[in-house]
Amino acid sequence: MATITSNSASSITLTYADNVGVTKYYFGTSNPAGSTLVTYTSMDSSASGTISKTITSSGTYYFAVQDAAGNRKVSSTSLGKALTSSDITITLSGSSFPYTGSAITPTVTVKDGSTTLTKDTHYTVTYSNNTNAGTATVTVTGKGNYTGTKTATFTITSNTNDKITLDNKLN
User: Fold this and answer.
1) More exposed terminus of the chain, fewer Cβ within 10 Å: N or C?
2) Per-10-residue mean pLDDT for the chain, 171 residues long?
3) CB 144 within 8 A of CB 122
4) Do 16 and 63 contact (CB within 8 A), yes or no?
5) What angle do CA 90, 94, 98 make, to 5 degrees?
């Protein structure tokens, strides 16, 4: 009778098609009980179409539709929290590292408020420009209940303090 056909970080669309028509619907964050459905007055008895809702935060959302005969279909989806949220912080194991000639990959800690997220469950990490002296970038990409990307930078310093002294003595 109904399926969630698309979602993004800001909206969910329910597409429904049936022979009886949708007469009531529900959208919310808890699994709907019978009394929570509201009358959907713009539908006729053979209707098909979409209902779209805009959301303001991450979580699990439920759509329910009911036809004139009282048959109900419930669909749910989870929408991720954007890594760009001010609650999400990225901390690197350091801000400056000496040049080594090899790729430098500082440890990355990602938190959602006070909760530490798990690499490869909640996010993935990629590094760029992290071998030579200069500014390197860490890109954290959301996974699971987290979406989008967030970056942090660190510095690779050159070894200008390393000096070689040659004594040239003539015998």
Assistant:
1) C
2) 51 55 63 56 48 64 69 67 88 96 97 94 95 97 86 91 58 59
3) yes
4) no
5) 140
